[in-house]
Amino acid sequence: MAPILFGLDKFANLLTDWPGYLAPWINDIVPGSGQDAMYIVGIIEIAAGIAVALIPRYGALLVTAWLGGIIINLLTLSGFYDVALRDFGLLVAALALARLATKYAPARHNS
Asked: Radius of gyration over alpha carbons of the chain, in Å?
């Protein structure tokens, strides 16, 4: 649920001013404003949350990759190292979920 809720908040900015978490170098390469970038981020986060719910073995890997990108962004933006560390913990948890889903929710085979 968290990725879906955070994704929805990218449209409302209720929890925080999300464009403030975007490193300037990323803001320079994405089209539009920082808020426009957050709309795209919100859509991706909602899709990742749905993917984890429906196909956790692949959705968790998507979340892992996404969190890796967020961590890179935060490490290049001074003052957000604590948030990057928290996201690293979430990345490790997403990897654990992917491994668990691979073992306990194997791919379906049509026989």
From this structure: 15
